Amino acid sequence: MFRAPLLMAARSTRLRELVERSRLSRPVVARFIAGRNRDEVLRSTELMLKGGLLVSLDHLGEDTTNAAQAGQLTASYVDILDAISECGFGAQAEVSIKLSAIGLALPHGATIAMRNTGIVCAAAQRAGTTVTIDAEDHATTDAGLELVRELRVEFPWVGTVLQAYLRRTEEDCRALADAGSRVRLCKGAYREPASVAFQDKGEVSASYRRCLDVLMGGAGYPMVATHDPAMITHALLAATRNGRGVDDYELQMLYGIRVDEQRRLADAGQHVRVYLAYGDEWYGYFMRRLAERPANLRFFLRALVTP
Ligand code: FDA
To answer: Where on this chain does substrate bind (predicted)?
Structure first.
């Protein structure tokens, strides 16, 4: 009931200003955002790695409006990858990128996004780690997949995110289940029309299971991005059925969500990667986390009104 209005609110500039200005919202925001800057997120990264978890760092930013902004974000990715290299984290700490943040929506956006992601991938290669391209709204899916296809010519390890709520995704999984591919499968967090996306939770879960079966049965490296216990159980069974050991796939969750389960799975010998979002542009990401769970909204509103 709250999902659609919250996802609409995620696009509202006025509400964004209001929420960002409110100091009271900060403790709630901190639950999902791993740091406001490079040093803070590096500290969180170190703690995670010491605790036996892997990380993927997302420097937040969406709907970049000019090439200079896209260039700045690209430079900050290079900066964090240089830090990953200096700290010797290697592939334990990778990065995730939103193409809208790096210039895809600008005039000549495909060229700008290709150039910027190429720069980030070269820095990742130097640091001995990988890059995964996030999935945004369905209007960008084709452009994102095309960009990954081109990037993989030079950087075969570039990963891509697929969203199980899209009707097309099972087919995309088939196309991407080849050797060397890295696919992060999530349910999907945007507001999409019924013409392109399943609307019913049960249908989304059924699609997620079908997509998992395709990826686990293929030759690539599946990255199972979900907090849903039923999906995780399905993934583990599908991995065993397809003769995959723990090094042949990984489980992934978001920072601040089901933290005990992240620990439990890592302690049980699973590779668990935590997605750490950081930076000042947290509004859109934060609103999508609220939309996923009404209890988060109650917690947030209580923080806003409690003196
Ligand atoms: P579901 O929403 O059914 O949640 C299962 C259980 O997890 C809930 O019952 C609750 O216990 C817990 N939970 C889930 N979300 C919660 C929240 N916000 N707060 C508190 N508890 C919560 N989406 C996208 O469109 N593009 C992308 O690129 C990515 N990238 C991405 C990377 C990674 C590593 C993850 C884990 C997720 C994404 N997502 C994403 C988000 C994804 O599409 C989806 O919205 C969320 O993961 C929630 O879906 P679940 O599969 O967890 O199931």
So the answer is: 98, 288-289
Residue among 172, 203, 171 nearest 187 (CA): 203
Please pick, among 16, 152, 184, 273, the residue that the annotation labels catalytic.
184
Instruction: Give the Cβ contact number of residue 49 at 10 Å.
Output: 15
- Tell me the DSSP string of 97-138: E-TTTTTTTSTTHHHHHHHHHHHHHHHHHHHT--EEEPP--G
In a domain, 276, yes or no: yes
Q: What is the CATH number of the domain that holds 109?
A: 3.20.20.220
What confidence score (pLDDT) does residue 47 get?
96
How many structural domains comprise the chain?
1
Q: Is 184 a catalytic residue?
A: yes
Residue 306 counted as domain residue: no
Residue type, 33: I
The residue to which tokens 């019913």 are assigned: 200
For residue 117, the enclosing domain spans 34-281
21 is catalytic: no
ipTM reported for the complex, 2 dp: 0.98
Q: Does residue 163 have a known ligand-binding role?
A: yes
pTM for this entry: 0.94
